[in-house]
Amino acid sequence: MREGVILRCTVCKEENYIAKNDKRKDKIEVNKHCFKCNAHQTHKQKK
Ligand SMILES: [Zn+2]
């Protein structure tokens, strides 16, 4: 069973994406578009 994780914008703290963290214990960090900032921002895994 796969675990979904929430990706949160590091700038405005909006929770924009859900990612699958397969067999990874490290926190995910990705550069994605934030709809609130209306720009690409770093999104980090919540928790
Ligand atoms: Zn944002």
From TrEMBL:
Coiled coil: none annotated. The keyword Phosphoprotein does not apply. This is Large ribosomal subunit protein bL33. Keywords: Ribonucleoprotein, Ribosomal protein. GO terms for molecular function: structural constituent of ribosome. InterPro entries: Ribosomal_bL33, Ribosomal_bL33_sf, Ribosomal_zn-bd. Belongs to the bacterial ribosomal protein bL33 family. Pfam families: Ribosomal_L33. One of its GO terms (biological process) is translation. GO terms for cellular component: cytoplasm; ribonucleoprotein complex; ribosome.
